[in-house]
Design a protein that fits this description.
90 residues; mainly alpha; 0% strand
Length: 90
């Protein structure tokens, strides 16, 4: 008697959970692509600054790209696998 409503509720909750998980994964993939596009746009700008004899600005932009890439990699790792980077690492 109670089996049918329970089954319907369980299937509904399971379906919504799977749907939410799928949307979450798509959002993460979209965010990753956006971050990669940002990094890819910084690199040519840094190279152009270097060619224009603005080495300091080029270095700053290159370091920004590297920092963004490191942040992206940290976000992608599961929390149990993250390691604290040494203070003087390059």
């Amino acid at each position: 008697m109670f089996l049918v409503p329970f089954s319907i509720g369980f299937l509904t909750a399971s379906g919504l959970g799977i749907s939410n998980f799928w949307q979450y994964r798509n959002a993460l993939a979209s965010q990753r692509q956006e971050s990669l596009a940002k990094i890819k746009s910084i690199v040519p700008y840094s190279e152009a600054l270097f060619v224009l004899d603005q080495q300091l600005d080029a270095l700053i932009q290159g370091l920004k790209a590297r920092l963004e890439l490191q942040n992206l990699r940290i976000k992608l790792l599961p929390s149990g696998m993250r390691k604290a980077a040494p203070a003087n690492s390059c």
